[in-house]
Design the sequence.
């Protein structure tokens, strides 16, 4: 009788372990999405944005380094090319930049 009780306990342990292995990666996806959703947009008036001549609209750029057709969405530093409106940028950590924006750190993708 005691052996049966131990087997059930082992089964339960393995069952919960398997559920845990599935739950951990799924929980991580939720945390990443929530963290990115909580990011605020880069203020073009901030010191870091002004230092790199950042603007939300590349169509209005009048800068000697600007290349026609360049914007954040086609920049190598734009971390999530699937983000079509606002997304993370390696130059401005913790902030979202406009996909149609531009700054002097632009690097062709």
Sequence:
């Amino acid at each position: 009788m005691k052996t049966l009780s131990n087997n059930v306990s082992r089964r339960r342990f393995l069952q919960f372990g398997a559920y845990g292995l599935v739950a951990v990666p799924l929980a991580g996806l939720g945390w990443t999405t929530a963290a990115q959703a909580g990011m605020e947009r880069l203020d073009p008036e901030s010191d870091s944005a002004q230092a790199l001549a950042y603007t939300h609209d590349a169509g209005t750029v009048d800068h000697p380094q600007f290349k026609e057709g360049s914007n954040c969405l086609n920049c190598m530093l734009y971390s999530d090319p699937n983000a079509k409106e606002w997304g993370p940028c390696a130059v401005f950590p913790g902030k979202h930049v406009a996909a149609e924006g531009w700054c002097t750190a632009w690097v062709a993708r």
Notes: The longest helix spans residues 2-37. The domain at 40-109 is CATH 4.10.490.10 (High-Potential Iron-Sulfur Protein; Chain A). The CA atoms of residues 27 and 33 lie 10 Å apart. The chain is about 40% helix and 10% strand.
